[in-house]
Write the structure tokens for this entry.
Amino acid sequence: MRGLVLKGHGGVDQLELRTDLPDPPPPTGHEVRVRIAAAALNHLDLFVLQGIPGVTLTPDWIPLADGAGTVDAIGDRVTSVRVGDHVVINPGLSCRACEYCLAGEQPLCPRFRLLGEHRPGTAAELCVVPEWNVRTVPASIAPHEAAAFTLATLTAYRMVESRARVRAGERVLIWGIGGGVALAALQLCASRGATTWVTSSDPQKLGRARALGADHLLDHARQDIPREIREATGKAGVHVVIDSVGEQTWARSLASLGRAGRLVTCGGTSGPMVQTDVRRLFWNQWSLMGSTMGSDDEFDAIVAAFRAGRLRPPIDSVWPLAHAREAYERLSSGRQFGKVVLQVAA
């Protein structure tokens, strides 16, 4: 089997293209084997490459979480897909038996795992996952677009719809437009009739965000974001902040938030440790929320929108698997607008 592997933690020199990887075992029971056409990078993959505390990888680890392709083989209990179906993969794996899974809250499963981080990922020709982790998509959708869709969109959907519950007319601040989650959040908020403020230090990214429906464009390197928002809203602030940056933006996120505002975060790309003045928290009656991936129902919702063409991921670039190091460097540079994708199929 042909695939990308991590020889160890560190920089892009640890990435290696292999053509002699063993094929995964044939699927059994509810398992589905997918012949991967394309796989997409997320910031998670940079963290996995660098090394995540508490996560130990075996040598020749296959990275990446997002992937799309065709069903190559199925186990004897699979009923939802057939061989030859075009599918997207939900990389979040859960036990399906705990109280959270049974309640339809799979991301809260104590055994929740991600492809590419806790189990070998999608950057190889074959990947085996449970049937409930795939959904069919039209063959007319390009593989690189399908591969770029799931993780970022599912994460953004849970943040916007299920956690923050953004409504028409509300004001929403989205940090770091250009990343996959931020772009998906912008599309979701705009489709709900919310007024959006997006930030970047790149004028070109801000211009492209305008074309996707952003109402207000802010340069977070040159402008005082809370001051700009307070002045524009008559000191009211925003109703919701979408923040996946962490340390560098946390204080400004809270300073931009209005009374009874909601802040939802799915990560900390600039660092995990933040400080909050608890007096401001209770006085303003803020809600501070975490969010990770999405449930089966949320997966169904975003795939339905994807099939209908209502929700599509912007693509920054597509790279052959042999140029994976350049793809990682592109994402690490922060210059990308949209998803960075690897073409896995030869």
Q: What stands out?
A: The chain has eleven helices and 17 strands. The mean pLDDT is 96.
